[in-house]
Amino acid sequence: MLLTASASTYKIPSIHDLPKIFNISFLENNENTKNIAGSKAVGEPPFMMGISVFCAIKNALAYIDKDVSIQLSAPATAEKILSLLLSHAK
To answer: Which of 11, 30, 62, 89 is deepest in the core (most CB within 10 A)?
Structure first.
């Protein structure tokens, strides 16, 4: 069931979200010709895209003031960005 209203409320799972008992099994395929659903390197692109968004936000903030851009740290939540914008507006 979807528990978030939008991408801004999605919280990335962490190690604390794992169940206490988490059993896995490996594919017995030494040649690695059977990928799950034919997948290859499906984990990296979302991380790279996330980094590009963070850099784009920092770049946009630098147009306002370079000091504001430097203050932004990851994760760049909507609350942090708004707080930086409001502190600069004063």
So the answer is: 62
